[in-house]
Amino acid sequence: MDTLRFELSSASFTSAVAATSLHSHSRHFFSSLQLGRVGSSSPAITSVARTTVNEICTADELHYVPVPNSDWRLALWRYLPSPKAPKRNHPLLLLSGIGTNAVTYDLSPECSFARFMSGSGFDTWILELRGAGLSSLSVDTNLEKPGGTLSSNNQQRIVSNLLENFISVSERLENVLDGGSKILGMQDRLSKRARDFKQRLELIPHYNWDFDTYLEEDVPSAMDYVRTQTKSKDGKLLAVGHSMGGILLYALLSRCGFKGMDSGLAAVATLASTFDYSSSGTLLKYLLPMKEPAQAINLPIMPIDTMLAMVHPLMCRPPYALSWLTANISAPQMMDPEVIEKLVLNSLSTVPVKLLLQLTTTVDHGGLRDRTGTFCYKDHISKTNVPILALAGDWDIICPPDAVYDTVKLIPEHLATFKVLGSPGGPHYGHQDLISGRSAPNEVYPLITRFLQQHDEI
Length: 458
Known about the structure:
Layout: E1 4-7, H1 29-32, E2 34-35, H2 53-56, E3 61-66, E4 72-79, E5 92-95, H3 113-119, E6 124-128, E7 136-137, H4 150-178, H5 186-198, H6 211-230, E8 237-242, H7 244-259, E9 265-271, H8 291-296, E10 301-302, H9 304-316, H10 324-329, H11 337-346, E11 351-352, H12 353-359, E12 388-393, H13 401-408, E13 416-421, H14 433-436, H15 440-443, H16 445-454
Parallel strand pairs: 5-6, 5-8, 8-9, 9-12, 12-13
Antiparallel strand pairs: 1-2, 1-3, 3-4, 4-6, 4-7, 10-11
Protein name: AB hydrolase-1 domain-containing protein
InterPro entries: AB_hydrolase_fold, UCP031088_abhydr
C-alpha cells in the first residue's frame, strides 16, 4: 500500500493546537519529522492557523493512509504502548464524533483517553476521517475537479453568503451586549475567521461524502493499515467510538452481520452512540427543520468549526450570552473552561451537508438508513457476534441514555453490556464528558479498560 509514515520526537510535543493539513505545513516538515516518504498535499478546510506538525500532533507517531479510488489521505495518530504495562494482543482503534479530530481523545494531560489506554499497554490509534484534522487531499488532486464550473462557483457563493449573514447577526448581538464598546472584540475576530475560510472555498467540491463513505471506504482502509502495521495474531482490532464514531462501529457490525462476514473486530466500546434517536428527547430533533432549507438552497457544507470559533467568546466569557451551548457539550463543572475552549477552537472541522442529511435519518422512525434509504442499520445489529460495551451519560441531551438503550436492546444479550454513568448527587456526564470530563479518568477509562482486557485473549 502506498503510505506515508511519520515518526515524531516525543520530546517536542505540546498539546496545543490541532487540525490543519499537510500542505499548510509543508515548509516545516523536514525540520520537525523523521520521514519514511514524503509528499505534500492540499489543505483540508479548517479554521486553525498554520503551525508546525509537532505542535499539532501530540501522538508518538503520525501515519497517513491513502483511500483507494479517492483523493483523500487519512491521518492516524499512534500512541505506543507503555513498556511497563502488560502486553496486549490487539491494537486499539479510536473513532471520534462528527466533525471532530484526534484532539478530542487527547485534550489535556489530565483527561487524555488515548494516553490512558497506551499507558495501559494498548497500541492506540486515532483515525481522523476525511476532512478532519490532518487528513488531507492528495498532491495530485485537481482543485477545479469535480464540477469546477458554474455549479462549484454557486456552491462557493452560497457558503460565502452564509458566513456573511452569520457575521452580521453576531456583530449585531455584540453591539447589544456591550453597547458598541467592542469589549468582546468579536467583529475583528469574525472578519479574520471569514477571510481565512474564504481562502479555502475552492475545496468545497471535494466535500461530497456521506456516512456510508466513511463506513465503506475510510474505516476499512484504516483498519487494514493498522492490522498490517501491528500484525496481531488473529488479525483483529479492538475499537472505541464516541458519538458518530460509535455509530460507525455499530454500522460496521450490522453490515457484516447482514452479509455473514467477519468484522475484523475482537470487541467494541461505544460512548453516547445509537442508531435511533426517534423515541428519545434528544436535542438533535430541533435540527430537523434545517433539513429542507439546506436542500432547497443546495448548501454544500456546514463550517461548524468556523461558526463555533466565531461565537466562542459568547459561550465562555462574560456576559455568557450563549453559555447554554456549553451545556450541550458538558455537564456543569465537568470540564475546565480551558479544556472546553480547546475542544471548540481546535478539534472541529467543516462537514458536508450530504453527511448531515444522511445522519438526520437517526431521528426518523426506524433510525439510521443507508444512502439509498432501503437498508435500516438497526434491523441487523442482532446478527453481530462481537462483544459490545455501550456507555451513556446521565445528563447527555444529545444522546440520552434511553436513545443509547434503544440500540443496545437489539444486541444479543450475552454480548451486550450497558451502563449509564453519573449518579443523583453527581458527578453527572454530558455528551463529551465520557471522554473529557474531570471524573472520566477515574470512572470511565478503567471501565473500558477492564472490558477490553476481558476480550483481548486470543
